[in-house]
Amino acid sequence: MIISSLFFCVHQFCETMVPVAIGLIVGRAIDTGDGRAMIVSLFALAGLFVVLSYAYRFGARIIIVAIEREAHMMRVEVASRVLHPRGVRTDLVSGELLTVSTSDAEKTSWILDVIARTVAAITATVVCAVALLIIDIPLGLAVLLGTPVIMYLLQRAAPLLTRTATTQQAEVARVSGMATDLVSGVRPLRGIGAEGAASARFDESSGKALTATMKMAKANSIYLGFSTTVSALLSVGIAGTAGFFALQGRISVGELITVVGLSQFVIEPLTTMSRLPGIAAMVRGSADRLALVLGADHVLTEGGSQVPTATDVAVKGVTYRSLDGFDMSAAPGELLGVVTLRAQDGEALASVLSGQIGADDYLGTVTIGGVGVGELGLTEARRTVLVEPHNTDLFAGTVRSNVIAGRDRADHELDRILAASAATDVVAMHESGLDHAVTDRGASLSGGQRQRVALARALSVSAPVLVLHDPTTAVDAVTEHAIAAGIKELRHRGDLAQTTVLITTSPALLAVTHRVLVVDAGRVVAEGTHHDLAANDERYRETVLR
Description:
Blueprint lengths: L1 H29 L4 H48 L11 H16 L1 H25 L1 H19 L2 H27 L1 H6 L3 H53 L5 H13 L1 H28 L18 E8 L2 E8 L4 E6 L2 H12 L8 E6 L2 E2 L5 H7 E4 L8 E2 H6 L6 H10 L3 H5 L8 E2 L8 H14 L4 E5 L7 H16 L6 E5 L3 H5 L3 E6 L2 E6 L1 H7 L1 H7 L2
Parallel strand pairs: 3-10, 3-11, 6-9, 9-10
Antiparallel strand pairs: 1-2, 1-4, 4-5, 7-8, 11-12
């Protein structure tokens, strides 16, 4: 930024010297008819244009590289903050976070250009004022005194522009986030017939963004119109005064030409300075939104350094969302089923077990192998417990890259995992097999195929404690039975001490569990084997065997 500012200052200095040089040529070569002076002056003028041209070229190239690098670093910084294992506490939805890490990061980097051009504009104004002072003191004072007054008046409007820009950017980010969420969830919306309601919501949000954008455009137009008018009036005043002085013989013809040229040129730096507060307001709005993310607290604490020695899970007196004093335990190596009569209880339980919510956000305790999750190191907690949510995403790549998730897995190991998740046919139906291409979010696969590949990914981790939330809602009954048998065989054969919790209402999955808990109104209301509950609990039968 500093080097670029220096080049821009050289460029503006040379630009200011152009009318000065023309005035000198008129006064010392044309008026006197000196041919030698004319030739020397023309070569000097050509050299001046060469310097100003290359100064701008190098300055612009350097500042553009700096802006792009700074934008890249801020994008990486915001993305790192959002993707941090400890999470980030913010009210922004994923679409808004995407806007912050892209559009706002880019606009914030514009401050480098704003500073460089401000320094250059000030240089041009000062050089112009000095040149006019040399020609005539009142003309120079007009620029030296008029410019600060103009900038003061324009700066008074800067806070209003900042507030307007911040509001507009927030509304645009909100509607962008909503659009992202709607596009990603278009299939479920169609499934429940909610396209109309979603469109109405988007129209309303888009209308607010349009109103905010028009308000910002109106404020900027008024601001620029006022600034351009004031700058033009100052220029006209200087040129008119110089003409009057020339008629009185106070200045020469050459000096008059120089003054007229400078009065026209000074509009450029004054216009630049008048526009910069508006751009700075936009930059400030984006910077404020970046600060919301970069300055947000982490959701999770650093945690301790203890390592669990067993795979039992205990949840005691947990109150979170719809859970109300919830108690649950799973022994090492147990395959536990959890049937929630209300869907929100299942979502809340999966969130608590995931370890991705802060200890201050819920009451009660959650322990793994007798160690509280807060006492586990974050890496150890993630290694020990894996919660596969009901709504999960696949990534652009291949079936293999989605299943192994960055781990080294031999093909014979993958065969067992694919068989357990009933994903073998997903591989077999494509010529490229495991190397079959998968598009972003798994859009190239059907719902059932995506769910099975996601299940295979969860099983490939071989986590000591695995929690699966409704992992088979998109597959048929035959496939569901195969998955149930596969999970039990893969994770609970022999002396394996892996613990699995299935939050589901699938009778096929519940049939292979060792024990089932029935949850209603945030608490466990029944417990037993699948067969005992199916025979003796009417609500269980209605929910599971419907």
